[in-house]
Write a structure and sequence with these properties.
By secondary structure, this protein is mostly helical. Strands 1-2 form a two-stranded antiparallel ribbon. A hairpin with a 5-residue loop joins strand 1 and strand 2.
Length: about 80
């Protein structure tokens, strides 16, 4: 897993990389470009994909910063 800049995601910006919902409602926000259908298909075939912050993760996983995979987000896995 690679380290990513925390700028852009308000939850990461305050150093909160947890997965559990926060009482104040602050959520992880998408900070990487949305993938194409072709890219999603390639990730599904390869068994590795990007999280919504650009980290490489397993298709059904989350990165260390708490961002979910694109394949999970769009409902492919």
């Amino acid at each position: 897993m690679e380290a990513k800049k925390e700028a852009g995601c308000p939850r990461c910006a305050i150093g909160d990389h947890g997965r559990a919902p926060r009482a104040d409602g602050l959520k992880h926000e998408i900070t990487s470009p949305r993938p194409t259908v072709e890219q999603l298909m390639a990730w599904d075939f390869d068994g590795i994909c990007e999280a919504t912050d650009g980290c490489r993760v397993e298709p059904d996983g989350r990165c260390p910063h708490g961002h979910t995979s694109w394949l999970r987000l769009v409902g492919i896995v």
